[in-house]
User: Fold this.
Amino acid sequence: MTAENIVNRETDVLVIGAGGAGMSAALAASQAGSRVIMTDRSLVGRGGATIMAQMTVAVALGEQTPDDWRNHYADTLKAGRGLCSEPLARLLCESGIDAIRLMDSWGTGWARSDGHLTQVQAPGHDRPRCVYVDYLNTGPAVAKTLRTQVAHDDNIERYGDLLVLELLVEQGRACGAVALNLTTGHPVIIRAGAVIVATGGLTRLYRRNSASLNMGGDGYALALRAGARLIDMEFVQFFPIGHLAPRLVGFDPIMWDPFRYKLGGRLLNGLGEEFVEKYGHSNEGYTITRDAATYAILKEVEAGRGSPAGGAYLSFQHVPEETLRKAFGPIIDKLAANGIDLTKSPIEVAPIAHYHMGGIRVEVDMSTDVPGLYAAGEAVGGANGANRLSGNAITEAVSFGLQAGRSASAHAADAKAVEARRALELAGPTLARLEPAPQDGESPNVAALIARLQALMQDYVGPFRNEEGLQHALGELQVLKAELGEVLPGDGGPQDPVRLDALDLHNMLLVAEAVTRSALARRESRGAHQRDDFPGMDDAWTLNQTLALDKGQWRLDTEPVRRLETPVEIPAAGGTEYEGQA
Assistant:
């Protein structure tokens, strides 16, 4: 590859990922005085999870009901089943207030009633706490707000269609990245004083998922190979009521939560019976958390009491048509165009991979084990423990993004950029890998391999796991890795889909192995991690697992759950009774 085909850029802070967390990080770094380059493998500000979010944002504003960030914090810890990093959970809940008010000042358009932001109750919260724009447009409105701010910031350079392949590390310090311009097929080297990974989660690993195509765990793989640790990788959250049947076109599969928030849809098994009470949860209102609802639905299916398509029924037949139309008028008409009349028949729902509680291990300033490397949003692990509280995702994305941007800017101010020649040397192995190479035999069908990986993870590393299945998954991951091989297929030209799939699959296989190894090691059931062979929580496992690559070998360790030096006192106002941190 000739030098003239290699684009070279230099900046203070490099942000990888341009969803809610990445854009927030870029804005904060710029406002702190740094030059910023923000990259995304799709369109800047139009990829990732934030723009897909349809529902609500949890934040203790107290606009309609008295509230305090400490009550939100208590609910977050309770949902996390004892594994939340308390410093990170506190940052999310306390700084989230200023973050969401900042979004309001930027014109997000949060719904209001009588001059106050409207707040509704979501599962796992002790009171109405969640704001929204409208029930199916919150994420797009947040993304548009951030995108507008970024577009008006002259300190932020934006590059879409840029896939980051590796981080550059010099003497143990992150100093940039090497990327592939998907439009031209040419490599790009970016030198930076600090790097922020804001690439989202890993739910593309699963056959049934609510993710965009860029949620295959890229950031986790980048951080691992750069020398950072991951944490809590076994905890993959399945959204319990993802749409299953009948066929629904033009809607997000997780669209039914707003209906349940507002109208109280009934979960029924295939016999038409309400069932969540069988599993120790109240059936009053919509209070059951996501991990518990997922467990209940799948256990009914396992017992032969599922709906025809293999899930549960969600029924709104008890809701008068005028009530449905008052709440969701235009949507009711769109559903009718799909042949769905909620007053006459239920729809079928089933758990769908939706979010990842694990990720890159960070300190409260969003720094990783690698100096100069930071993370934000869903790329971060630890804040949500074994199960994320409903509504915390966008709060986490914005608040953690702002913190990462400030921290990275401060680091970059004292960091000397690596010289261009040295950056080229560091990028050498990655550039060599991109060179066209002769194929030994027929090229693998990479798209088929991705489908096999997704089926493997769904069937053996999904909501229910056991040792036999996890060991089988580890073995099959090695088979897939061997079939893929190390030589990149495709010609490497512009928008080469075969090569892109291969690059993705290398990362996906690495991250899938991290999830599987962590799940195999945790010999209990807790939150989103359910072991058929180890049912129930075990106090001995009230600890976090970390995972690293050491000279190409996995290193799995445990560490105590990080606690605050001074415990937070939880107010009892509003009738809240805090049940403790475990």
